[in-house]
Amino acid sequence: xxxxxxxxxxxxxxxxxxxxxxxxxxxxxxxxxxxxxxxxxxxxxxxxxxxxxxxxxxxxxxxxxxxxxxxxxxxxxxxxxxxxxxxxxxxxxxxxxxxxxxxxxxxxxxxxxxxxxxxxxxxxxxxxxxxxxxxxxxxxxxxxxxxxxxxxxxxxxxxxxxxxxxxxxxxxxxxxxxxxxxxxxxxxxxxxxxxxxxxxxxxxxxxxxxxxxxxxxxxxxxxxxxxxxxxxxxxxxxxxxxxxxxxxxxxxxxxxxxxxxxxxxxxxxxxxxxxxxxxxxxx
Length: 283
What we know:
Among the domains are: about 70-185, RlpA-like domain (Barwin-like endoglucanases, Beta Barrel), CATH 2.40.40; about 210-280, Sporulation related repeat (Alpha-Beta Plaits), CATH 3.30.70. About 20% of the residues lie in helices and about 30% in strands. It is built from four helices and twelve strands.
């Protein structure tokens, strides 16, 4: 009887040791294909030549099968996707994303390519084309929104590395921007990166600036110059009639622009295209 008792005790002890040996010693590591949450994003180690990268042509596209739920939740917040981008305009901070997400699937299901002119937005329907204007330097680009984000307070759009580079903010990281949905409409000033029009930054009030290109005694001459300027600038162009010494004069003006720096940017751009002798006027 004692022998049987000892055998039972030994059996229980061995069983306990075996069970303890099977307990894990710590959490399993994440697969190497996953990026850690704290991994810092970055651009390419060697800045590439992006002069060949062109802006997409705005066009109407059907909504993506993915990325357009009525609403979704991220980090404790609910976001409602817009049914339409018609008339959409927004100002805020833009940021960009690069290597950390390069090659991964976007919310639309398309792979993210940091060298294409794309962007992420929290609520615009996917896909949609928007014009992004850098309010700090006056540069403007067109991008195709195909992803969701950025989910950081105060930021309204995440640009691809290429888009950020062309907008002059890749090295800075963020910039104040205005975004305007294009919805496939034909927009004055959309062009390739090699001949991009100067940004259209509007404004009203006593601080408006205009670039006066030329003056003519006949309206026909002014209208022709205004038409020739259309592919070169993304600003309103107008022919303004004035009386000088009892004679009518027709002036070609570009604007309004909210800051003198923007007007100077336009002036320099036009000078490179052969329009010398322009003047900046403040109204």
